[in-house]
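Hello,

I think I submitted the nicotinamide-adenine-dinucleotide job twice by accident. Can you confirm which output corresponds to this input? Input:
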Amino acid sequence: MIEEFAGLTAVVTGGASGIGRATAEELTARGASVAVLDLNPEEAPVGATGFLCDVGSTESVTTAIQAVVERFGGIDILVNNAGIGAQGDVAANTDDEWDRVLNVNVKSIARLSRSALPHLRASKHAAIVNTSSIAATAGLPQRVLYAASKGAIQAMTLSMAADHVREGIRVNCVNPGTANTPWIVNLLGSEEDPEAERAALNSRQPHGRMVEPNEVAQAICYLASPRNGSTAGISLAVDGGMNGLRLRPVGS
Ligand code: NAD
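Support: Only one job matched these inputs. Its output is below.
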């Protein structure tokens, strides 16, 4: 049987860790040539090729995309996944911090897409998948700046999908719940009682645990797949039901 992504080249930003890494692994396993664009390209998974890239810099993105095209001959799939966190209420962050987080989480998607679009237009199976978050659709405490960045990603996914669907480029996003990645493990490490915090995060999701990075990777592959050519402009939640379900307390 022909592999699902055979002959296709995928770019995964933030592909050296967590959700991006799991996605790079899954796309590779399903036959894609995978370029990981990351601050730590040497940590790209086996089978993928790492390219040094700071998604917060236009110059760095342009150089990396050029290098990918020289290496693989084109780009069919762009996974805009790299992102950083921010904590606090609406008064907590300085203007500079707002600029820094929106630059890495939101403007990066415009930067990467702008650079990749000419190559996506030349593909018969073009897709862009953006990584949003449950923070965009549920009110999580102390996450105002992060939520703003992830809400922007959902809005721009829809608008991008409308702009490009007729030229054969599908744009969608995934909306993960709290996921068991190095990001969250580091965050837990900074808590006074990491185990209590882990238990709180687990129980916040209706299925009682964090989302595994590979579960998000499966959803990203679905959205990117040439087999799913009619899926455009959607936000696919991978959150154990956190966004939509209202369970009664355990035991009641
Ligand atoms: P992670 O920290 O494990 O991995 C992030 C990767 O992005 C790292 O390899 C890092 O080097 C890279 N990166 C960071 N800044 C970069 C930059 N400026 N240029 C290039 N690469 C950069 O994070 P993760 O948990 O896998 O998160 C990945 C995405 O998923 C993010 O967009 C995050 O907002 C989103 N997300 C995460 C969770 C979660 O609970 N972990 C939940 C919802 C959404």
